Give the backbone structure.
Amino acid sequence: MSTTDFSATLALIPKEEKPNLLFVLLHGEAAGPEQLYPLVQAIQQAFPTALVILPPLGEEHELDALTAFVRKVQKHYGISGERTALAGFSQGARLVLEASRQHGDLAGRVLAFSGLYSERPASLPPTTMIHLFHGADDKLLPLKEVEEMLQHLGSIDADVTVDVASTVGHEIHPALIEQAIVRLQTCVPLRSWKEAYGELSLREGCSEIDPSKPPTLH
């Protein structure tokens, strides 16, 4: 059993202001942090006061260690779970999805690129908004599996969005990165709308789930 060495974590800290947002990014298997550099650049441009950290990829049985590390960073910088976003690609996506499922107060947002839950969750914390990004031509994780998962997530009233890029495979495509920033900037969590308007779930910038027709980019 391996143990993740969090001392090898890459941290990008704002120089001029105290960070008020936290992004934790996990790369895919057989890759390194450089895989996520385009996403890092987009985040830094859109959220210049955000702290971005890229831990080395762990394994699913190391979720507790990852969670403890994230909480340590949150405490050190005084950043709440609501102002924390977890993002991952492929295996990293599965890890952040599972971490957020087990620990509802860990992050307000989860960005999952080309990855899904290992198993269909019976329920999800209402405190976390899930954004799925996928390539229509992904051969490692076919779009059909994403659509089936969406149907299930809709049945348990999950707060989730999905975006699909045509002619894109198993990769973090620029179109998906661009849409991820749009989702972060425009989507109001479903819980906020329910608090303000009861059960009204129509959200500015976020379309309702239609499992049969995920929105397609470019």
Remarks:
- Helices lie at 37-46, 63-77, 91-102, 143-155, 174-186, 190-197.
- The beta strands are 10-12, 21-26, 50-54, 84-89, 109-113, 129-135, 160-165, 216-217.
